[in-house]
Write a structure and sequence with these properties.
It is a multi-pass membrane protein. Strands 14, 15, 18, 19, 20, 21 and 22 form a seven-stranded antiparallel beta sheet that branches. This protein folds into five domains: 2-78 and 149-167, no CATH class; 87-143 and 631-674, TATA-Binding Protein (2-Layer Sandwich), CATH 3.30.310; 172-299 and 598-614, Sandwich (Tick-borne Encephalitis virus Glycoprotein, domain 1); 315-433 and 587-595, no CATH class; 453-579. By secondary structure, the protein is of the alpha+beta class.
């Protein structure tokens, strides 16, 4: 019994962890929450899939066995004790009972026995008579069904655990362990390539898998993921995704409804039904329940603009691709043409973000987060800071050394800190999440002016021209204008190559030949001078870039939008400094798309839930019996005497509560009327 209690405690703790900690998420989710060290510790216990962890299943199985053996051992004894009136108790045992009475009655034995029986029946006692010489024993009891509470409570544990095991991966894992199933081989790319040994039959007792379909596709199988391996689960029906439905709130663009319009064909009856499956509205057929689980891209067709961020060119080229496709592109990197492998990983037409925080766009929300718009509170639906910021594209560029970097760019500019900016994200292999550059949008809402300015920074002739234009504006006769040109041109060159950090490193002598290093005593003012020359020269450089685009010159003085232009220039300079560390020579901007949606339905057969419901019913019965039904036992000995009869009685209960004491007091009071005065 102690062993079963310990196991039950372990199961309770593990269940609490599984309830509080979101299950079956990607590895980075847990690393981000706990850190690398604690994730490694927790992963030893499979906290991300705790209900299917081998140790948890073993504990559950041992709990079932232990509690079952306990029931087998004790139920016959309990049932026997329930049926027994314990008429073997003798008068000599009376002194052992704390609740007892002894009296002499003026009524004869027959009258005393008759009145005692009336009292027992009135108070709900069942009784049995036993003659022992001249003495008659009335052995009575009530509430003995209290003992059923212990049986039902323990039986509930067994039944609930069995139901949990039925709905776990244990039935499928048993088939795998027995050698009748093996994982889908790596070389199998299509369903037709999957061998029969990697498929579970349509009559499989329980399973939980995903059906992923693009619009127009039909599937009659689900993909089961168990650990690092995958299997196919055949279904007794087929599902065709006609359309994936997303509806939005007009106020803030948040998703209001996710649903799949599907056609289901029953293989057994041939019946064809059209159903709408959405969140909190599943559909059940042949014991298999279909839930709206998530959604993803089904191979959308994208038109991307390839924007150069290296060299002195700023004209874009366009390419057409599909989500999931891989192609080769050529780009200039450090003056040399290099080949990159472009893989379009994902496309999302909606991205609901909270723009109140500066880092609100650090991570696009996944389906689970966006689904809160459907099932969450009304407050979330009317949050003024929450907006749909539009589509994004996620892609990977792999260089000739097979080094890959993932990128994520939004199609439309977003308003952050009062400025309209494009978010250009990247994630290195060592990063946990995306980091973003903010490229300011120009007057037309595009990136043309920024890209033109970037190209101008990389053009030696335009840099020198901008340095001379700035030097010509300096009116102080004490300053040699040629020195201004040299320093301004050098500041522009260093900044174009390595941003603000490069300027600081140059002044500090990092990577600079000793003969060219700035003397230590003038480094601080030199940093200020170079930054000033950089900014003022860059103002002229921007005007030269605008001339190439056919835009009017800016002077920032007396203009209606002078403050706005100054903010754009500040954002552009910051973005150009960050761009020096951008690991790719190009940026992919999404220009247009043809969205093809894919839905992910979860197919679940869980017969164990009905077993669990039965176990819960047993638990309710058991708790009610244990806490609200009180067992009472009463023994009455009536012995005839010359002038009346002698009555002895004892009452007992498993729990001697205040209620029991009041009942015994009432018993004494009622029988005191029989006592001889």
């Amino acid at each position: 019994m102690r062993f079963a209690i310990y196991l039950l405690m372990i199961v309770c703790i593990a269940s609490a962890v599984g309830t509080l900690l979101e299950q079956n998420r990607e590895e980075i989710f847990y690393i981000d929450r706990f850190g690398t060290y604690w994730y490694q510790v927790f992963s030893k216990f499979s906290v991300s899939q705790i209900y299917n962890a081998p140790w948890f299943l073993v504990v559950m199985a041992f709990l079932v066995v232990s509690t079952t053996l306990c029931l087998i051992r004790n139920v016959p004894k309990i049932l026997k004790d329930m049926r027994s009136f314990k008429e073997y108790v003798r008068q000599t045992s009376l002194r052992a009972f704390p609740h007892k009475i002894e009296m002499q009655s003026a009524y004869n034995a027959e009258q005393s026995v008759a009145m005692s029986k009336v009292w027992l029946k009135k108070n709900g006692y069942a009784f049995k008579e036993k003659q022992d010489g001249e003495t008659l024993l009335l052995a009575a009891k009530k509430g003995s069904s209290n003992r059923l509470g212990y049986i039902f409570a323990h039986l509930a544990i067994v039944v609930i655990c069995v139901g949990g095991l039925l709905d776990s991966e244990l039935p499928n894992r048993l088939q795998i362990w027995l050698g009748s199933k093996s994982p889908i081989p790596m070389e199998a790319r299509f369903v037709s390539d999957v061998p029969e040994i990697s498929k579970f039959g349509a009559n499989n007792i329980s399973f939980r898998g995903n059906i992923a379909m693009s619009e127009g596709e039909t599937a009659n199988y689900a993909l089961l993921a168990m650990g690092e391996n995958s299997y196919l689960q055949q279904l007794p029906f087929s599902v065709k995704l006609n359309k994936f439905i997303i509806e939005y709130y007009q106020s803030n663009g948040m998703p209001k409804r996710f649903a799949s319009d599907v056609t289901i064909t029953d293989f057994e009856t041939g019946k064809v039904e059209n159903k709408i499956i959405e969140v909190n509205h599943p559909y059940e057929i042949h014991g298999v329940t279909l839930y709206q689980s998530s959604f993803n891209d089904g191979g959308s067709k994208l038109k991307l603009a390839v924007l150069p961020v290296q060299g002195d060119k700023f004209s874009a080229t366009e390419l057409n691709t599909d989500v999931g496709d891989t192609m080769e592109i050529k780009a200039q990197m450090a003056g040399n043409e290099r080949t990159y492998r472009l893989t379009v990983n994902d496309f999302r037409p909606i991205n609901v973000e909270n723009l109140a925080a500066a880092d609100g766009l650090a991570k696009p929300k996944d389906f689970q987060a966006q689904i809160l718009a459907v099932t969450g509170s009304a407050a979330a639906k009317h949050n003024e800071n929450v907006h749909n910021v539009g589509p994004l594209v996620r892609y990977t560029l792999t260089d000739e050394r097979n080094q890959s970097v993932e990128y994520q760019n939004y199609m439309l500019p977003v308003q952050l800190d009062g400025r309209l900016v494009y978010l250009i994200g990247m994630k290195l292999p060592t990063d946990e999440g995306f980091s973003y550059m903010r490229i300011p949008a120009d007057e037309k809402g595009g990136m043309d002016e920024f890209l033109s300015l970037r190209a101008a920074f990389n053009n030696p002739e335009m840099r020198l021209r901008a340095a001379r234009a700035y030097a010509a504006k300096v009116e102080d006769p004490r300053i040699d204008k040629e020195n201004i040109v040299v320093l301004a041109n050098r500041a522009l060159e260093i900044f174009a190559r390595s941003g603000f950090k490069g300027l600081d490193d140059y002044v500090d002598g990092v990577g600079v030949p000793e003969a060219e290093r700035v003397p230590e005593n003038i480094r601080a003012p030199m940093k200020t001078i170079l930054r000033d020359y950089l900014i003022f020269s860059a103002i002229d450089l921007r005007n030269f870039a605008r001339q190439q685009l056919g835009l009017p010159e800016l002077n920032y003085v007396g203009q209606v939008d002078a403050e706005k232009q100054a903010q754009w220039f500040d954002s552009a300079i910051r973005a150009l400094s960050d761009l020096a560390f951008y690991p790719a020579p190009v940026v992919m901007q999404l220009r247009s798309f043809e969205h093809i949606q894919a839905s992910v339905l979860q197919a679940t057969r869980s017969p164990g839930k009905f077993v669990v419901y039965l176990g819960c019913l047993f638990l309710i019965i058991g708790v009610f019996q244990m806490f609200y039904v009180r067992e009472r036992r009463l023994w009455l000995w009536v012995k005839p005497e010359a002038q009346g009869s002698e009555i002895k009685a004892a009452m007992t209960s498993l729990k001697r509560t205040l209620d029991f004491q009041r009942e015994f007091d009432q018993f004494k009071q009622d029988f005191s009327e029989l006592e001889r005065k």
